[in-house]
Amino acid sequence: MGREVALTVLRRHLSRIQGRVQQEFEAHHLSGLAAARWLAALMDGVARGAHAWTLASVMAEAPEGQPMPASPERPFSDRSYPSPAERAAVPRFAQPLAEAGMTPPSERPFSLAATGGYGRGVMAPSSDMDLLFLSDHPLGPRGRRAVEAMLYLLWDLGLKVGHATRTITECVDDARGDATIQTALVDARHLAGDPAIFVRFQDAFARARKVWGFGQFLSAKRAERKARHKRYGDSPYLVEPHLKEGRGGLRDMQTMYWFARWAFAAQRMTDLVGPDAPGGGLLTDQEARQFRRCWDFLWTVRFHLHYVTGRAEERLTFDLQPVVGARMGYTRHGSQDGVERFMKHLFLTAREVVRLCRLLEPAIERAALGLPAVQAAPDAALTAAGIAVADGKLLFAPDRKVGEDPAIMLRLLIAARDRGLQLHPLAQRSMIRHARDAQRLRGDPEANALFLDLLTGKDSARSMRMLNSFAFLPRFLPEWARIVGLMQFDTYHVYTVEEHTLHAVGVLDSMERGELGEIAPVASELIGQIQSKRALHVAMLLHDIAKGRGGDHSELGAGMAQEICPRLGLTPEETETVSWLVLHHLLISQTAFKRDIDDPKTIMDLAEVVQSPERLRLLLVVTVADMRAVGPKVWNGWKATLLRELYWRVAEVLAGGLSVPERDVRVARSRAAAAAMLEGRPKAEVDSFLALGYPGYWLSFDPETHARHAAMIHEAEVDAAPLTVRTRVQESRGVTEVTVWCSDHPGLFSRIAGALAVAGASIVDARIHTMTNGMALDTFWVQDASGGAFDAPHRLARLAVLIEQALSGRLRLEAEIQKVRREPARLRAVTVPPRVVVDNHASTNHTVVEVNGRDRPGLLHDVTDAITEQGLQISSAHITTYGVRAVDVFYVKDVFGLKIENERKLAQLRGALLEALAPVVPVPA
């Protein structure tokens, strides 16, 4: 048979088998694992067929194209697909080309083996086919031509083929000291060619493994795993997980299979169950079934990923999550969307993988390398508590039954923390197996004291993380179980709810150790002054405990805290404090980022809620920890500055400082301070500047800024400049201040905002002031796309030019904004329903308008343009972005300088803003 004919036959067959597997899988007749095994079995037929043609065409002595004897077997092209019973057994039914009338000659120069994942007998739709051409001796010219011909045939079929050509000796030599090759070979299985060669390889490799020992393989794979987790995410709860390489993913499970195969030649996890299994049974039957369920679920998700994307995609990004979840049958249930239910199942599976690996790995190590030498604890107190030492790590004494005294699990963690020692893997294994006994400790006074000791002591985040990973925490605190693996389908939260909470507890640890003194100096100082330490740490643990239950999680969480805290042994006063902190844990951040903190009413309203300096300290520390735990890009210098200024202003009021009636006094002080900064300037110039500002202007800036404004205004008047733009990088705040001085007119804010969007600057705050002479002094604080100061000199120069062009009408804003509306495809699946909230109570002199919508370049231009079209004046703007959600707040007045209280006018305003918030089609990134 000629090459083109063979290629046509193989291509047709490959298309049929791939289509049939996809059809059966998508019809839910096959799980992911069954489909992976079936596909690998079918690909065996393709590999054997290609091998048979290669031997027939390249190695045969007869001229190429001479007919070969027909096989009595049916050709695979006529072979029917398996029955349900056959499919359940996942048979390797596909016949090679040798059975399609192309029997190869008797000469077999090499053995063909499958390695890697393909060698394990599982294959994803877009996975590589890893092949090993194995021989006793180096291949001659004909053998090398045969390998080349077979590879080109497979490549021409569109297959991705990883390959190696080695002798048995080369396999052993190359594998020595190389864990990657060792891993590939430990999964090797024979496909075609001389089986005796493969048997000799297996014997040689088994002898070599015995010489090398299990310890070197174990160490190498652990180091590889550590590097892999560092690269793909050391948490199993990242909201865009890497299904294959991430923590709790397929590769972690494969590592356990490799350990079991290397140490015991086990082919499946059930080989480790039962008294006759290695080590007397390293797994229970239930644990082996859990391995199988996790393996099957992850393979099912992987198959969907490959089919949806049409490529070997392993990262479950935001745009793919709803699609895969829907294909797997997850729909909305109660308050949870289908995609959130699907991701919760995925995260719970990842957590189970981590738990099972921690359970099995030390057992394999112990069985393969021998029992550790258990020694008496270094002091009598530990010995009396039933704690021993092995390999310098703590574990339970051999005579201590954890199930009879579950509190010993907490005592062991405290002992390890206080002595700076690690838990032995066997101790972790025991805690995992006895985690369910934690439910017997609920309400137990001793257990409560131990738990609170761990929560409030040093390295509390590490202790809570271990309790969570061992599944102890959800059993001890049943409310916690509801947030395990719970994700919020947005781009703001990087972690699941419980992982975010554990990060927040870790931030408290860092503040208490003084590690955040430069990043959050006020909170780091205040945490040492807090008297209610237990309440602080418990509130941090519970602040998001009610998420996923529907309704306001702060209000629901406050009620739950009233029930949980007494059960943990907190006093009524501590319970009230925890409940109050949970209820108001968003209050400071919402005030700082959504309200004008220069407005005295804002400060007085907040002080009225807080009422005491201790609660203010608690609230600021909780706010900082909560924000820093959301993700690495959420916290920045600008937000830190706003929180710090808000704290000191409220603290001043609580200490008996300024109140609302003293506004005029504050204005007078500000004007006097500005005059002092301008000392030495001509009196007429100073008086002219002091006469320009309304009270809101004098309360919005410090004396240094007033002095800079005076110099800029004087220079503009001398030069008769119609427009002046000044930029100032504020590194400490992580922002760039952009000040614009020009004649005021409707739509000014909107045009400047549009120009800034075209320049690539993101506005984080703004102050708009119309002076007594009709000129506008508008100040914007902007950042670049990464959340840092917008400081590149060429970009600052372009920014000033764009503002001038926008105000003169020479810049077609809408067209230019459309050019910068680029967005990664993975983020388009995240929707943000538009919302407009109007508040006439938050400010004495202004109507406060809050808009929520999906962020996009130019959004602020669109929204402010809509406000201007309604005949309103914007006094200040407060811009906040949470992932792709924009929350912008505007203080506005009508043309007469009054609040907007007419309901018809407010309804028109809401309608115009909702229209501005409507999604636009972005340009693909």
From TrEMBL:
<dbReference type="GO" id="GO:0008081">
    <property type="term" value="F:phosphoric diester hydrolase activity"/>
</dbReference>
<dbReference type="Pfam" id="PF24931">
    <property type="entry name" value="ACT_ACR9_3rd"/>
</dbReference>
<feature type="region of interest" description="Disordered">
    <location>
        <begin position="63"/>
        <end position="87"/>
    </location>
</feature>
<protein>
    <recommendedName>
        <fullName>Bifunctional uridylyltransferase/uridylyl-removing enzyme</fullName>
        <ecNumber>2.7.7.59</ecNumber>
        <ecNumber>3.1.4.-</ecNumber>
    </recommendedName>
</protein>
<feature type="region of interest" description="Uridylyltransferase">
    <location>
        <begin position="1"/>
        <end position="381"/>
    </location>
</feature>
<keyword id="KW-0378">Hydrolase</keyword>
<keyword id="KW-0511">Multifunctional enzyme</keyword>
<dbReference type="InterPro" id="IPR002912">
    <property type="entry name" value="ACT_dom"/>
</dbReference>
<keyword id="KW-0808">Transferase</keyword>
<dbReference type="InterPro" id="IPR013546">
    <property type="entry name" value="PII_UdlTrfase/GS_AdlTrfase"/>
</dbReference>
<dbReference type="InterPro" id="IPR010043">
    <property type="entry name" value="UTase/UR"/>
</dbReference>
<comment type="similarity">
    <text>Belongs to the GlnD family.</text>
</comment>
<dbReference type="Pfam" id="PF08335">
    <property type="entry name" value="GlnD_UR_UTase"/>
</dbReference>
<dbReference type="GO" id="GO:0008773">
    <property type="term" value="F:[protein-PII] uridylyltransferase activity"/>
</dbReference>
<dbReference type="InterPro" id="IPR006674">
    <property type="entry name" value="HD_domain"/>
</dbReference>
<feature type="domain" description="HD">
    <location>
        <begin position="497"/>
        <end position="619"/>
    </location>
</feature>
<keyword id="KW-0548">Nucleotidyltransferase</keyword>
<keyword id="KW-0460">Magnesium</keyword>
<comment type="function">
    <text>Modifies, by uridylylation and deuridylylation, the PII regulatory proteins (GlnB and homologs), in response to the nitrogen status of the cell that GlnD senses through the glutamine level. Under low glutamine levels, catalyzes the conversion of the PII proteins and UTP to PII-UMP and PPi, while under higher glutamine levels, GlnD hydrolyzes PII-UMP to PII and UMP (deuridylylation). Thus, controls uridylylation state and activity of the PII proteins, and plays an important role in the regulation of nitrogen metabolism.</text>
</comment>
<dbReference type="InterPro" id="IPR043519">
    <property type="entry name" value="NT_sf"/>
</dbReference>
<keyword id="KW-0677">Repeat</keyword>
<feature type="domain" description="ACT">
    <location>
        <begin position="848"/>
        <end position="925"/>
    </location>
</feature>
<dbReference type="InterPro" id="IPR003607">
    <property type="entry name" value="HD/PDEase_dom"/>
</dbReference>
<dbReference type="Pfam" id="PF01909">
    <property type="entry name" value="NTP_transf_2"/>
</dbReference>
<feature type="domain" description="ACT">
    <location>
        <begin position="737"/>
        <end position="818"/>
    </location>
</feature>
<dbReference type="GO" id="GO:0006808">
    <property type="term" value="P:regulation of nitrogen utilization"/>
</dbReference>
<dbReference type="Pfam" id="PF01966">
    <property type="entry name" value="HD"/>
</dbReference>
<dbReference type="InterPro" id="IPR002934">
    <property type="entry name" value="Polymerase_NTP_transf_dom"/>
</dbReference>
<dbReference type="InterPro" id="IPR045865">
    <property type="entry name" value="ACT-like_dom_sf"/>
</dbReference>
